[in-house]
């Protein structure tokens, strides 16, 4: 059974036009004009149970709108969607028991009461039996190290502490699907790492399906084997993260530090016949650019066999550069994206 099944999903919004100047404001007061904006444009994808999928795109690409439709907050304009076999906006009462949601910029905890009191209220909302709730809570508190925070008001928590509590709140009823919308926004690297480790462990041990939207591509690299990329309301890429790197990366750079000055001519001779290029950084250091079509091991073996090497470093095009190149090209076409990556 699929955790999420989306077919030709569309969402239109009716947005007011604002006319300029005082006279325009007066006209708007008595007679408003509207225009239609299509935020999500006939997208389709399927997510099997137990998968961690990254859902990425620039601001305004339609990520949050999609999440809101998948969680039943918004009703689609057209198309079909099922989550855990339910249509979210129709079967809301049954549907919500199987999902957990964390919005990084919104809280489901009550601001002025203790964290444990918020958890108790959520237990009643989701109708979780007391014994089951206690067992689940103890497990989550231990794994996320929240023991000292339970009696503090939410307003006295740091952002990192609050986000860990938000995760617990979303998991108290043991949902099979977890929707995360910017869960690590504004957090320091230590807290981000703790949250990533927890999510990975939970997915492995409990088989929880996770749909993650984020601008932090390190979250994607740490957690996701699959990426769905959105641009202007359309899916422009849906596939594996490794495949994304292989197809769209410009290649690898290998930095060699030599024991003695090595002429560029000698380096070019060592790699003759390979479609590679050299850049000299100083008298002891040079970089070799190796496109994906060329074997890195063969290029390295030739250089190591013909020169005295002190140190070697390998640099890959990182995911941020690849994704930025795809957005700038406006296409998931590999050649167009590679040109943007190469020029960035």
From TrEMBL:
InterPro entries: AAA+_ATPase (IPR003593), ABC_transporter-like_ATP-bd (IPR003439), ABC_transporter_ATP-binding (IPR050763), P-loop_NTPase (IPR027417). Residues 24-257 form the ABC transporter domain. Keywords: ATP-binding, Nucleotide-binding, Transport. The keyword GTP-binding does not apply. One of its GO terms (molecular function) is ATP hydrolysis activity. This is ABC transporter ATP-binding protein.
